[in-house]
User: Which sequence fits this backbone?
């Protein structure tokens, strides 16, 4: 199975890199750091602490852990790897002063070895769940402990991994791999796939410990002013193909009730910005692109957020937010980001990526689930008509968030012995 995986990975590597080159040609945000996907980059001093956060949501959640590591181990290089261009832009904006930000290399031996040769990490922390066979195997050979932290597995992911039981068990059961799961259910799923019970614990979700940068809160009023004082504003964030049409249909209903309402539409992936802009151009609604304007005219009905790293700031300026990836079978995105800036939140029914958080928020009255354009429009109109109800929902959500803090400290408690043992092994 490992040989088959390596053959496929080598065959797909040229295609993947050519795809990135094409994206870089069309979208400038993909150009920077491109060679890091091949494992290239500056050499760091030995003993680096390495954290991997795949995309924007994980990058945002990594903040408290990164800041604690920088404070506790100031003499060590701190490295944050990401997998997406949006994640890289956000990571540089938030942590560029305390961490080296790089792309995770492609999962083939040459790229992985170059990365490890240059970074020489003492330990690796993989946030949530990223299982890369070549990377894990290379870390095992170099005696680099890996902690899968704030780890989660949906039932859908379990079914997928069970198609390769021996392969998955070799990864999760390797002696250098530990799992710090979000919930007891997640821990049981990891163990069923091969994780060793003695190296598996429950720590909670580090996303509950994230804090919104002061600058984001301070800029909320200014952003609101650029969007339009006195008009209802709602955000559809991290939307996927198939959701924008539902969102726009809902917005037409909202406009019938509030003619000056503004929709801030933020597609999840940068390659879709141009497609969505063209689609809006044929919609009959007036719209403005963030990349081409800083202010919105009162006549504009849609503000297309086609830049990176600003979504949280627009959540802070909005009356209510819909979090995408949930009206299509994606599994949903970070529901805590809007709440953390005091913005009421809506979601579709697909929340498998963090089912526990969605269930807790629904039970507390902090999250309203919508299923189509009609229910989405009804929810937006209800919140804009009754702001007090929105404040009650936010307060309930913040109570859930506060009750579940502490995961970062538990991750650190698991991580410190791993760092100590790795240091003793290397003679540091």
Assistant:
């Amino acid at each position: 199975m490992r040989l088959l995986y390596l053959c496929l990975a080598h065959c797909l590597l040229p295609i993947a890199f050519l795809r990135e080159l094409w994206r870089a040609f069309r979208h400038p945000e993909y150009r920077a750091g491109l060679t890091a996907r091949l494992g290239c980059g500056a050499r760091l001093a030995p003993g680096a602490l390495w954290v991997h956060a795949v995309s924007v949501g994980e990058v945002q959640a990594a903040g408290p852990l990164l800041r604690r590591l920088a404070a506790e181990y100031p003499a060590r290089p701190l490295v944050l790897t990401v997998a997406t261009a949006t994640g890289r832009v956000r990571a540089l904006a938030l942590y560029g002063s305390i961490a080296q930000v790089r792309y995770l290399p492609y999962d083939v031996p040459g790229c992985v070895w170059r990365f490890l040769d240059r970074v020489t990490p003492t330990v690796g922390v993989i946030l949530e769940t990223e299982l890369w066979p070549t990377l894990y195997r290379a870390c095992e050979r170099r005696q680099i402990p890996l902690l899968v932290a704030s780890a989660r597995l949906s039932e859908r992911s379990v079914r997928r991994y069970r198609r390769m039981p021996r392969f998955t068990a070799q990864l999760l059961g390797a002696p250098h791999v530990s799992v710090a799961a979000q919930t007891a259910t997640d821990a049981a799923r990891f163990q069923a796939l091969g994780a060793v019970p003695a190296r598996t614990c429950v720590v909670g979700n580090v996303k509950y410990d994230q804090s919104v940068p002061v600058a984001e809160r301070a800029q909320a009023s200014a952003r609101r002013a650029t969007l339009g004082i006195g008009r209802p504003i709602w955000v559809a964030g991290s939307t996927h193909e198939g959701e924008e049409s539902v969102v726009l249909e809902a917005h037409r209903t909202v406009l019938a009730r509030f003619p000056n309402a503004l929709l801030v539409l933020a597609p999840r992936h940068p390659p879709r910005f141009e497609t969505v802009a063209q689609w809006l151009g044929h919609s009959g609604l007036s719209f403005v692109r963030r990349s081409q304007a800083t202010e919105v005219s009162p006549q504009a009905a849609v503000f297309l957020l086609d830049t990176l790293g600003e979504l949280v700031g627009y959540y802070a300026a909005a009356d209510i937010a819909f979090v995408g990836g949930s009206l299509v079978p994606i599994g949903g995105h970070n529901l805590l980001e809007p709440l953390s800036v005091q913005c009421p939140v809506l979601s579709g029914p697909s929340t498998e990526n963090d089912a526990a958080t969605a269930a807790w928020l629904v039970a507390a009255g902090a999250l309203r689930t919508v299923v189509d354009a009609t229910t989405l429009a009804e929810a937006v109109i209800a919140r804009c008509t009754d702001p007090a109800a929105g404040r009650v929902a936010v307060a309930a959500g913040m109570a859930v968030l506060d009750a579940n803090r502490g995961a970062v400290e538990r991750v650190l408690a698991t991580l410190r012995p791993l760092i100590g043992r790795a240091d003793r092994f290397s003679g540091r």
About this structure: The chain is about 50% helix and 15% strand.
